[in-house]
Each structure stands twice: as C-alpha cells, then as structure tokens.
Amino acid sequence: MFKERIYNFSAGPSMLPLSVLEQAAAEMTNYRGSGMSVMEMSHRSKVYISIFDETKADFKKILRVPDTHEVVFMQGGAWLQFAAVPMNLISATGKADYAVTGNFSSLAMKEAKKYGEIRVAASSEDKNHTYIPAQSELKISPDAAYFHYCANNTVYGTEWKYIPETNGVTLVSDMSSNILTKPVDVAKYGIIYAGAQKNMAPAGVTVVIIDKKLAGKELPYTPTMMRYQTMIESDSMHNTPPCYTIYMLGLVLKWLDAQGGIKGMEKIKTAKAKILYDYLDESRLFKGCAAREARSDMNVTFRTGNEALDETFAKDAAKAGFDNLKGHRAVGGMRASIYNAMPTEGVQKLVEFMKDFEIKNK
Ligand SMILES: Cc1ncc(COP(=O)(O)O)c(C=O)c1O
Question: For residue 81, which atom of ligand 1 is closest to its CA?
Fold first, then answer.
C-alpha cells in the first residue's frame, strides 16, 4: 500500500503528468461550466468539438505538421496500423520493405504479409536486436510501395538516431514509444503512427499523421474505419471517436508546451536518460543491454548477468516505490521506461536505489 504516488517505470500504459491527472480530476464531473463530464458529451456538441479542434491544432503546432499532412485519431492501437498501413498503401506496387529491429517491427511485418509481398530491408536479429542497422545496410528497393521501420524499440531499448533515406520510396514509421520526445521532420514521412499510452494519453487513441496525397488508394476490401481517406474526410468523426482520450491528449499537449514544447522536452529527456546510462557505464553490477550508439532515451534495458539477482532487484525496487522494472520476457533483465511524464527526480532516485543495491550485492 502506497500513500503517495510511486515512480511507475511501465512500458505502457505509463505515467501521465500529475498536473494533468489533477486537472482531469477537477474537471471530471463538470467540465468548465458545461454541467457535464467530457465522458458524457456528444462528440458532435459544440463544447466537445472545441476540445477536439484545439487538441488537433495543438498537436499540429507542437510537432510542426505541414499542410501537406493530416492528423487523424483512430482506435485499435498501433496494432491496427500494422494492417491499415499495407491496406492503404500497398496497392501502388504490391510490395513493401520492412526493417526488423525488434518484436513490434517483426509483428508489423507479419501482419503486412497478408496483403502483399513483404521483404526484409534490414534486420538486427543476429545480435538479439541490440543495435540499429546503418543506412548503408538498408536494402530498400525502388519498387517498394513503402518502407516501414519502428523508430523506438520499446522491448529491446534501441532507437533509430537517423531518418532512413529511401530515395523516393514512401517512408512509414511506428513512433508509438518516442513520439513527442524530439522534433520530427514530418514532411519526410508518408505515414507516422503512434499509440497514445506511452507519451500522449491513456490507451484508446492512435494518432496517425498522413501525407494526404497517399490516401484514397486502399485495397477494395479495406474496412471503412481503416480507410485513411474516410478518417481525413470526416475529420476523424465518421463514428464516435475516443472522446475522453482525445481530451486527455489535449491536456498533455498543454503540459508539454509548458515544458518548452518539443525542444524543451528533447532537452529534458536527453538529460534524464543520461543520468541512468552514465550510472550503467560506471556500475560493476548492472550492464546496459543495447549497443551504446543505439540506446533508447525512452526504454533503458539493463541486467546484472544473474537472473535470480535481476528478479530480486525488480521485487525490491517495486517495494521501494519503483515499479514495473522487470524486463520484457524476450530480453529478460530490467527495463526502465522513462517517457515524458517520468520526472527527472524519479530517475535520480532510481539511480540512488540501484547504487545502494549494488553496495549490498557486491
Ligand atoms: C513500438 C510499439 N509499436 C506497437 C505497439 C503496440 O501498440 P498497441 O498495444 O497500441 O497496439 C507497442 C506497444 O507497446 C509499441 O511499443
């Protein structure tokens, strides 16, 4: 039993900024004099439309989404996009190329295989996904309808540090675990998609950024709700959108703006991750799992080399208020997910706890 909030290092759903939760709580039963909770509003009401419009405008402004692109709010998680991307894009040539750098990119590729000829453009499987292939290792064919990569590998703790050059092939990225953590040159992408439950909002909404010229060429059997053109034409309101989650995203975007916007967020997250990685580099007990140059600033994977000790660490840490540090079963060891809402203090305190644990387990 904890009287206070703990530091929750969950890979997702994960922490939300405390001030956002408090504001949502204060507005829960009567949103700004409307006499209703946001949960109770018609998605077509004036009051809700103003929440929706402001959230979308703030998102576009914060990520500097150009006019060539549209932002739509979908449901079904990033997983639905594993199918929606090929269904909407593959008709151009019937073929697509995928970089496999972790489990989610591998799952995305497997899903896409139902809709066309899918080829591996690069893979980091030979070293258990501890690194990111270099540009020179990417085999992207000119006849690919698109090239897909996962910008941050949540499970393995690696992150692409460069935007792949595709020589004209449409670029698609799953940014579920690092969207809104650094500036992105959106114009370079055909599609960016991201589930909300790490850096944006509670689970339930998936943000998709689409180059508008790519929409409307979907496979004929694409479900209406998976057609990007439908989402664009209806401004994400073809049916009832995940209203409350979009409202929460709006609150998070205001909070993010107050942190200095995307540049401010980038500074904070870089410094935050460095605290943990610097300690891992000097520790004689804990070792980082990812190759140094591919380290993710969002998901920090590490281990002691002794499975029983890893288990003890995760358990002791949870008791001390640092929860969800057990690594994904595909990697083992530990994983600290330090998304935007994790305060710097949480990472500093975790490092203090790790140092103590190291002394006790020499
Ligand atoms: C990079 C990445 N892609 C996709 C997913 C799947 O997301 P969802 O559960 O929203 O379908 C996750 C979930 O953790 C993820 O981290």
Answer: 11
